[in-house]
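Subject line: Sequence and fold of a protein, written as structure tokens
Area: Proteins and the way their chains fold up in space.
Start of record: The labelled sequence and token lines come straight after this line.
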Amino acid sequence: ITAPAMIHYENGRWGLSMLTQLNGSVFPKAATIALPCAIAACLLIYLGDHDTEDNSAGVIWAGYNMLVGFLIVFRTNQAYSRFREGTSLIHQVRGEWFNATSSVFAFCSHKPEMADKVHNFQQILVRLTSLLFCSAAYQVSSFENDLEFEVLDIYGIDPKSLSHLRASPDRCETVLQWIQRLIIEGHLEGTVDVPPPILTRAFQELSRGIVNLKQVTMIKEVPFPFPYAQMLAAMMVLHSVSTPWMA
């Protein structure tokens, strides 16, 4: 089963470029019903009795204003809800990954003979975590390149792995896999010296972070429904043009 693609659109600088887009628009189908009704209404007004005073236009205009106001309030509430949910989730991502990294640091061995291995392990882990959150922030941002985000540095990561990361379609999943593999190797070598049931807490926090990130990505990739946005933009333009005339 092939599902239709998501309707992507650009608001443009003034928010009016979507008015001319036909892909996903409801205007063509709506016009087949609205135009005959509008023509019939114009004929009835033209052929009707013009001697009596008629205030129907004012009633229609008041109803139209109420409808536009309701639609604007509804979309504003939806936009605020999406913004608040996105910011809350990205902070949860940061908190989950910070707790996971902090826990792994606490789980490291305190034996004197493991000091060098522990130091190297922690240095690589904290750099990979920085790279992970940088990739996550870039994934949900609107920047065209990742130069807007800073990482600690890439010391300890071999060039071949970095080349693979640049070509990866999902950098977060790649770096997350590196971190999980690093923790497992550290546990097998004795660098991470805790029982496996306790170590799984770090993996749980890492997994919760990536799940929250996917939810933020969904908010970014699924825009506000185009038919609703286009209809509201057209109604607002009509309202702005008609208000001086109706006044």
